[in-house]
Design a protein that fits this description.
This protein has helices spanning about 45-55, 100-105, 115-120, 135-150, 165-185, 195-200, 220-225, 230-235, 320-325, and strands spanning about 5-15, 20-30, 35-40, 60-65, 70, 75, 85, 155-160, 190, 205-210, 210-215, 240, 250, 255-260, 265-275, 275-285, 285-295, 305-310, 315. The chain is of the alpha+beta class.
């Protein structure tokens, strides 16, 4: 008999007053899986995390952990009985406790990992006796992570845990966090609005749109085979390609610039460099298009170039959706 998923969400519905925030949301997370809840502000990500943790009670639906119903009709298990760890956006460290005291605060089950050993693992053994206000944002995030893992939660919920970090620190802390989650086989649900972050961290991504699940897939599948125009546009800009019947779409990096005689002729209207790529804006009879080219390309505003692409890279969606879904 197969073991139940660590987390199961079934037909979860919630709202405030007349406004529905979550509409029959459903997904599962396997034991040891890192799941990212991805979506724009207001799509219901944080509300969903609060419902899973027990900080709020849903209007309808079911939340189960390891086969036990925590929220269902007639059932509501309070937060302190769920065995769930929570990492908040501001880390919520106690200012009057040292880093080590923070990590040792609260429930420590038998066989729990040693807090000092974990602080050493994340490179903070030297800061064990320092207070949070003396630590950088990255160091505070690592203390909060160690505190969450020491309690050996059945499930760890993380709400935008890297949003307060600068870009350089963010990449390092992401890698360290993912390594620790893998080492401890901790099941984690991470809220983010950043598609690059979700693709870096997640085994699978739950993409939310207006309180509904738009698509659930691995990062590779979601990028390569988006089921909707919304999903495709969430991960990159799109160029619309006029064709008979429904329109099709191409990502900027799928365009190749060639001699004007060898492709669809377009005029260059803007060129910018991002270090690794050259971004080119073009215009022609079919409207504006954007290309992202690897490396530094010698292209000048006013030049005429040709554009080519491989038909296999075209993305197509139902006509009704391309009419109703905005950019």
């Amino acid at each position: 008999m197969n073991a139940p998923p660590c987390l199961e969400i079934a037909a979860l519905t919630h709202g405030y007053g007349a406004r529905t925030v979550l509409d029959r949301v459903a997904f599962q997370a396997a034991t040891g899986e890192v799941l990212c809840l991805l979506g724009r502000s207001g799509c219901g990500k944080t509300t969903l995390l609060r419902l899973i943790s027990g900080l709020e009670k849903p209007r309808d639906g079911r939340i189960s952990i390891n086969g036990q119903n925590f929220t269902a009709p007639g059932i509501f298990v309070p937060p302190d009985k769920r065995g769930i760890g929570m990492m908040f956006q501001d880390y919520a460290l106690f200012p009057h406790l040292t880093a080590l005291e923070n990590t040792n605060f609260g429930r420590k089950p038998a066989g729990a990992p040693d807090a000092m050993a974990l602080l050493s693992r994340v490179g903070l053994d030297h800061a064990a006796h320092r207070y949070p206000h003396t630590l950088s944002a990255g160091e505070q995030q690592r203390v909060a992570l160690v505190r969450a893992l020491v309690s050996q939660p059945t499930l760890l919920l993380m709400d935008e845990p890297f949003s307060n970090l600068d870009s350089g620190t963010r990449d390092d802390v992401r890698r360290l966090t993912l390594a620790l989650l893998r080492e401890t086989r901790t099941t984690a649900v991470i809220v983010t609005h950043d598609p690059a972050e979700a693709m870096t961290l997640a085994d699978r991504i739950v993409l939310l749109h207006d309180g509904r699940v738009e698509q659930i897939a691995t990062p590779t599948e979601l990028y390569r085979r988006p089921r909707s125009l919304f999903a495709a546009r969430y991960f990159s800009e799109l160029n619309e390609v006029a064709r008979a019947g429904s329109p099709a779409y191409l990502r900027p990096h799928d365009l190749e610039l060639v001699d004007p005689a060898a492709g669809m002729p377009l005029r260059v209207t803007d060129v910018s460099y991002t270090g690794e790529n050259t971004r080119v804006t073009l215009v022609g009879a079919g409207g504006p298009m954007k290309a992202s080219l690897r490396g530094i390309r010698r292209v000048n505003v006013g030049d005429y170039v040709g554009v080519k692409y491989d038909a296999k890279d075209l993305l197509e969606f139902p006509v009704s959706e391309t009419i109703t879904v905005g950019r």
